[in-house]
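#onboarding

Welcome to the new folks! Below is a worked example of what a typical request in this channel looks like: someone posts a single protein sequence, and someone else replies with the predicted structure as tokens. Don't worry about understanding the tokens yet, we'll cover that in week two.

Example request:
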Amino acid sequence: MLRCNRPLDADMLQHSWKAISLGNSWRFDDDWEVPETTGLTKAHTQGLPLGQPAHCLGYARAMQGIGITETIEDLAAFFTASGTHADAAIQQRLTEGWVTASNTIQAESCIDPLTDLPTYEHFTRVLHELYASPGFDPDGFVIGRITLPALPHGLTPGWTDLVELGLRCQEAFDGTSASLAYQGNTITVLMQRTGENHARLAYCQATLINNKHVPWGRADIRYESLTTTPTGVLDALAGTT
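Example response:
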């Protein structure tokens, strides 16, 4: 008996996948196609297991400097292009490959690998640059911090929890000039002192508390005014951790 809905050949699938990914969130046309994308499309069209090709693709994306969020969203575009349901096991293999590569990169990164948020070290550089900018007024800015409680029984957040945390924080401040950082269980936000930004921080807090994928039962907000020097600000922040 003839089978219906035959899969696309590898070239057609790759073309469709790329188009969908570029239409969603992929930023640059030139850096999308790598040998590992071909490996995944060929494995799919030949009916082979996708776990290892996905792992290799995740590794390659990290070595390219592509963040975990964009990497996972690109895999979602692959599932759409191939007409298949998202597979959590394949996504996990992709993420494992990405994490493996990120751990081998020796150069200091300004991005936390799992949340895709800037590191606290990068945040301190941004703060110093802000103070050095012409006409800077500390009274026009404020730092908001969302602190999440430690998990019970010595548990640590899983990679899916941290990816979700990063997505929610980026969503809350999308389109603003706010500078975010993640360290430990604290999200730090340097933002202009406006009612809209205060509302965005509260929205971020609420999404972290209420999202079913994140295991924290509460999220506490603190505000810190900017002092006359960046060192004074960092000292004050160190006293609130």
